What we know:
By secondary structure, this protein is α/β, with parallel strands linked by helices. The chain has helices at about 30-40, 50-55, 60-65, 90-100; strands at about 5, 45, 70-75, 85-90, 105-110. The longest helix is centred in the first third of the chain and has 14 residues, at about 30-40.
Amino acid sequence: NIKATLCMAVSANGYIARSDGSEDFLPYDGWLRMLEDVRKYGHIIWGRQTYEAGREMGDPYVVDISGIPIILLSTSRHAIYPENVTLWGSPEEALGLVTDRGYPKGYVAG
């Protein structure tokens, strides 16, 4: 059984996203702290909507994640993703990839 760490971005008043899914109210320094953890784990597991919200925020967010292995959970396989993104349909499959790649724990963020 592989273990996973969950990191959630939450504002001081308990919001995780606006009604349209955007997270533009979260401070950039929180993003940088999360990236420190991502680099320690060697990867990040995201849902498709979280990934797309991050990409929509543009630079420097897109540049920050460009070299990080991203395990993306999505049942939609119609989009084309960058080379560092691996698409999986379920959390179980994603954690299986974590094991296959030799990561000691999964790092799930949202």
